[in-house]
Amino acid sequence: MAGTHEFYFDDDGMIQNVFLLWKPKSCGSCQHLFCDKCIQKWKRINSTSCPFCCTPYKEKRVPPYIHSLLGRLSIRCRNSSFGCTEILSYNSLEQHETNECQYPTKQCHICGNYILTDAIDQHQSSCNPALIECRICKHLVDSESFS
User: Fold this and answer.
1) Which helix (H) or strand (E) covers residue 34, if one does?
2) Does the keyword Zinc-finger apply (predicted)?
């Protein structure tokens, strides 16, 4: 698993992945929480400022209650659409998805979707790039040509 998870509640009240705070980090100035992967990406692009308060981002220890809340979540494996039926705690999710899941997936570097590892080459040979909106002109552009 490579960072941010996506989650939503399904019909059974179980969490399905849709942007879950993953490996949280906190800004020492404004206390906003960020996924580790997200804040690292932000810092590479935007130097050292916090995305919310624009002051220099100084990492602060995340309050223990945040880890406690996350630890109480029951989350379906991101590979449930491929057949995995495991429901795991936040703390065991990464280990399961990385090393134990019987339905291993990889994220397609073209479209960003997760694909069964055995089918990734076939998928990528016919995959269409994800469309993203240009912040300036608002046109949809395929992600491969947008850099």
Assistant:
1) strand 33-35
2) yes
